Amino acid sequence: TTTGTASVAGALTIYSTPTIQSTANQTLTLGGNTTGNITLSPLDGSGLVAINGNETITGTLGVTGASTFLSNITQTGSGTFSTGTGNVGLNGNTTITGSNTFTVGSGLSTFNGNILASSGSTGGNAAFILNQTGSSANDIFAASASGSTKFRLQNNGDISFYGGQSSPITLTSA
User: Distance of alpha carbon 66 from its chain centroid, rounded?
Assistant: First the structure.
């Protein structure tokens, strides 16, 4: 039949190469007001869950384990974008707009795309704030070209920059 409701009590197992889809480009909804949590757990939690296309998430998206985002990540409105702890790699353009907090994990963070930070009407705050909470020997900010250091803002406030010379020019803080 092409209309009506299919109901299964217990487990539903589909063999071969299964596809669940709606027809005529209708919205496919999983869950309703009496549905509990929905868990996707291929290969007993060690498999891959792939979402193709554009995603809109209302509410909280909790991701546990290794995750790869191959396209743009955009957050609008107010809220917090946090990568948690561990290593982070963002390979597409990353844009956070509105009054948001963007927190990158405590591990190694790699950004291979453009990062746009824009500040709104909140007074007294810089558009981009770095807070180095690690060892006092760690730089607050460093910039390099092809692995060669060009600029350093050191933890003690000293600023070093490199031109064509082999030793940096350093402005020492008081």
Answer: 12
